[in-house]
Amino acid sequence: MKWGIIGPGAIAQQFAAALKFSERGELYAVASRNLQRAGEFACRFGATISYGDYESLIGDDQVDAIYIATPHSHHFHYAALCLQANKHLLLEKPLTVNAAQTEYLVALAEQHQCVLQEALWSRFMPCFAQVKQWMANDIGQVQYISSQIGFAFSHLRNHRITSPALAGGALLDLGVYSISISQYLLAEYPSQIQALGLLNNDQVDQNTLVNLSYPSGVTSQFVCTIGAQSSNVMTIHGKQGYIQIPRYFWNGEQAQLFQDDKLVETIDFPHPTNGFEYQIESVMDSVEQGRLCDPRMNHQDSINVMKTLDEVRRQIGLQFPIEIESLN
Fold first, then answer.
1. Is the pLDDT at 318 greater than 90, yes or no?
2. Residue limits of the Gfo/Idh/MocA-like oxidoreductase N-terminal domain (predicted)?
3. Are 114 and 137 in the same domain?
4. Residues 172 and 249 in one domain
5. Which range marks the domain in which residue 151 is found?
6. What's the pTM value of the predicted model, to 2 decimals?
């Protein structure tokens, strides 16, 4: 399968490095708004062709699947063009900046019978499959999930994470992990959402605190921040024990099982390359099997994650420019 990359930034470098080890896929094309940058990336990772605009890559008949790694403010427009051109698509998290845009893309994927996969990489990792197994068998009835995710980014100037025009802030960039992973582990969607947030001088959320209540009675609580260095740990608490995912929990590199407050098992999950390989192979599995997404991160999951993000944004007053919120 011939892959193209739109947006050759730091995240795309990890994608390209993982794709090198795939037996089924190859990096064929790279597109940037700067042709020199695209060419340098193509040379580094062995792509056949480079483009100085995104539309040319989308229109290349040799491209089978596209990975979009632009800021999420620009996901919707180019994802729609990809699907309309009948390209399979791996789209960085979050898929879009609101639920209406995600629903539109899902409808396009169904219309064109193309894979549309949200690249929430944690969902595809063996670590979280093990956590689900422990939750079902080893810690008793689950009571709540807690997590922190954050880094002291707010001092950065002229950076996407501090720019409202690029849908910046802690919530969409970092908090999405806590929401999506909790939703995956519990296999249900929140029925009640409570949020508090601090907007900084750039008018993006610096610190956001959220309580999610689920129909089963379980609660997920998280803090996401671009103003502080966090512990970056997720813990699933049950009546007879708990599970801890330490060391940047979304990387899925280790899980620990505690029973009666005693550590009884630690499992390391070293990635064969860098962790991107799981979602890459998932997309190619979907193409081969004729499905439009992986059941571990299905379209309804993506829509409901975005609905949760929409409600949190409403409660904390986080707004983005109309031009990146629209369906045009």
1. yes
2. 1-118
3. no
4. yes
5. 126-268
6. 0.97
